[in-house]
Amino acid sequence: MAGEVKIISRTYRKIKGKYYARVRYKIDDGKPLDILRQVENKSAVKPKQAEIEVELLKNGPAQLVAGKVTFRQLAQHAKDNIYVSALYDNQETKIKGVRSVVPTHSALNNLLAFFGDVDIRKINEKKLTEYQVARLTGTIKNLRKVSLSTVDRELSKARRLFNIAVDEGWLLRSPFTKAVSKNLIHDAAETPDPIKTRELTDEEALRVMKALDTPQRCHTLPVFIAAMDTGARKSSLLDYLRWQDINFGDEIITLTAYKGKGRNIKPKRWPVQMTSRLKKELLQLQLQRKNKNDAALVFEQAKVNLRKLWTAAYAEAGVPKGTRLFYSVRHNFGTEMANEGMPLPALANLLGHSDVKMTMRYYNMNKKTIDKARDILNRRAVVNS
Fold it and tell me: If you classify domain 202-373 with CATH, what class do you get?
């Protein structure tokens, strides 16, 4: 956008208790345009107006001005400034960015396929609902039909984008009001998927191990055994477990997970058991490893094509389609430990939970639980007879 910039007025607006510095300008003899930027309080309005004016006169009109931002511009701004690779300080506290850039950018690209260059002011509940329906029915070009939980995650990203737009002063209010958010974005507990939340049975686990014990898949078998015997999350095993975390003498493994939101994400470390069969697998891997650095990842080679190979092995083992690969194994671990009488606080520690309520989700009412309840009641009946 070329031409001479002329400042028309400098004012402010107060919207829902928040102050915004407002600068109106025009280019040559064009129509008036606005730039609106949020400030902390009324006294900060004039400095912000001056900052905007200098920016306009020095660099020309910004692309991102109130009422003139497309969804594409907003998404690109988020990719360049918000959803970047995470940076950590010396205490391993996240100071910027996100841990998983690829899935976040993928969600934004899916949103872009629908909203594209639409002015963000024109995106309302009706438009958002149309997106939800289009994703669920698979009517967006080049995008396949997906589940409700996937759409919920993408709409959550859209809500974050609109909050960014409001914070930057590019939008007066987000279309995601409390009522709209409640209507469009479902809590995970409201839409449970029995397949995706199921545990892997012991019989299925044995069949999966057999399916993984082939020349093409055997390099991933130690990961499956580690997941079965520790109940660890995928990231704890594949992304954070290093040889320095393995104590063969005491048969203890120290797991790591990053918990929290925003800048409050910090590492959590806790010890778990090393079973005999897992120790055997790890010792074998130690002998085979080329990188002798203790900071090297334990399962670096096993990560290659793991998802593809496990998916094929699960199918070959007769595991119902849609069963989550790592979650089902972790769920199996939690359920088995609970059924064998391990106290929930102790199980919560092994699973890396800070709240026992989280651990309760891994306790399934399966046949073993029912059998145990029957045995207890039968013994009580004998005593009381």
Answer: mainly alpha
For residues 241-270, average pLDDT: 84
- List the domain boundaries for the chain: 5-59, 71-190, 202-373
Give me the percent of the chain exceeding a pLDDT of 70: 87
Q: CA end-to-end span of the chain, whole Å?
A: 92
Sheet with 33-39, side-by-side order of all strands: 5-15, 18-27, 33-39
Cα distances (Å, whole numbers) of residue 231 to 143, 183, 199, 217, 337? 34, 35, 12, 21, 10
pLDDT at residue 106 tops 60: yes
Question: What 3-state DSSP class applies to 17?
Answer: coil
Nearest to 79 by CA among 142, 160, 140: 160
How many whole angstroms separate alpha carbon 189 and alpha carbon 152?
Answer: 12
Residue 290's pLDDT is 82
Residue with tokens 């007769």: 318
